Amino acid sequence: MFPDRPACEADAEAIEELVKLMERRQGTRQNLAVPAGFTYLGQFIDHDLTFDPTPVAATQRDPRALVDFRTPRLDLDSVYGFGPAAQPFLYDWKESAPPGTRLLVGHNAVDATDDLPRNQQGRALIGDARNDENVIVAQLHLLFIRFHNAVVDHLVCRGTPDGELFEKARRIVRRHYQWIVVNEFLPKVVGTETANRVLAPAGDGTAPTIRREFFKWQREPFVPVEFSGAAYRFGHSMVRNDYGIKRLPPSGSGRPAIPLFPDLAGFTWLAQEHVIDWERFFELDRRAPQASSAIDTAIAPPLFNLPEGDPKLPRRNLLRGRRLGLPSGQEVACAMHAPALAEEELRVDKTVEPLAREVLLRSTPLWYYILCEAERKGHSEDRGPEGRHLGPVGGRIVAEVLVGLLEGDPSSYLSEEPSWRPGELDTGDDFTMAMLVTFARRAAIGSSRHAARARR
After folding, report:
1. d(CA 44, CA 60)
2. Where does 260-404 show beta strands of DSSP type E?
3. I need a labelling partner for 345 at 20 to 30 A (CA). Which of 89, 325, 365, 442 fits?
4. What is the pLDDT of residues 242-299, one digit of tens each?
5. Domains recognised in the chain with CATH numbers
C-alpha cells in the first residue's frame, strides 16, 4: 500500500525489548462490544485470503517477491478447495444424494462425535490445514460445512435440479459469508464510522458507495503486506486465556472455562466435551455471549507459550514485519494523513533499554503501533472504553483491503450485483453469524434424511 515508505528502524535487539515489555504487561481486558466468536471468524477469514508457507526466517524483504498460495478473494476456497471434481475427498459421495453436492462431515471413531473429516492419524482433510489449529476455528470450519449442506437441503426443497445444486449452493453460501464479513464483522472490528466511510450503505436499497483512498492496484487486487503482516494481526490481541464452550444453565453459572492451550489445541479428533454451544460465542439468544479481549497491547499469556516453533507469538509477528521491511507506524500514519501517536500513547516505558526505547519511540513497528492506536483511540462514538475496535490507521487499512478485495473479485456479490441483499434463505434482508448458526443446525436433520435416501 505504501511502497515508497522506508522500513521501520527497529532492529532485532529493539524487537526483543518490545517483546519483553509486552510479556510483562498482564491483565487483558474484556471487550463487551465484540463476542468471542468474532476472534476466530477473523482467523477463518485470514485463512480464506492468504497462505504463505515460507518460514519467518526465510521471508524476503521484497514484498513483490511474496507468493500468496490462497486466492486473494473471500470465496471460501479453504472450505470448497478446487471443487468436487478436483478434490473429491472434501465431498460426500456415499451418504448424500445426489453424490458430491454436499461437503463431507467426519465422525470421531471413539464416540461418533461429529467432526471434520480426518485421516487415520487424526489430521483434518480440509482445504486449509490451518483451520484445524485449535478446537474453536476447527468447529467454525465445520459450521460452514454444515451451512453449505443446509443450503443444499433448502434448494432441494425448492425443487432445484440436481445438476445445478452444488454451484447454486456455493454461490449462496459465498454471498452470505461475504455479507457477514463487510456488514457484521467489519463494523465490529474497525468501528461503524470507519466501516461506513469505506462502504457507505445506500438508504434506498441501491448499491453502496465504495471509497478506497489508499488500497489501489493496477491489474488485479492483491493482499498488501501492511495488512497481512501487521494490521490484520490485531486479532491476536482479542484472544482470551480460556473459553466457556457449553451453554449456561438458567442459574447463570456453568462449567469452568477451558484453557486455550493445551486443552483446546487442534490437529486431533474432536472430543465430545469440547463440542461448542455457539450461544457462548455469538448473539443467539437474550443472554450475552462471552466477550473477546480488548484490542490493545496486552496479549494473553498462552500466546507467549505456543506449543510449536517460536513460543512467543508477538516475537513472530514483529520479526516477520521486520523481514518484510514494513514501514513504521509513524510512516504509515504520515502516508495516511493521520496524526502520529504521542510518546505516552506508545507505552514504551523506561523499563526498556534506553537505546532500544529511543528507536522504538521514533520508529515503532507497525503491528505494535496499530495495537497502541486501538488502545488509545479505538472507542465508539459514545466514547466508551478504548480497545473496542481498531483506530484510524489500522481500521482504515483493514476496511479498505476487505472491501477492496470484494470489489475487485468479479464473482463477489459486491462486483456482480452491488445492490444484492440476503433473502434466498428466507431470513429477511440481513444475515448475521447468529443466523448462519441457526440455519446450519438444519444440516444434521438434512444429512440423516439424505443418508436414508442414498441407502434406498
Report:
1. 25
2. 291-293
3. 325
4. 999 999 988 767 789 999 999 999 999 999 999 999 999 999 988 899 999 999 999 9
5. 12-455 (1.10.640.10)
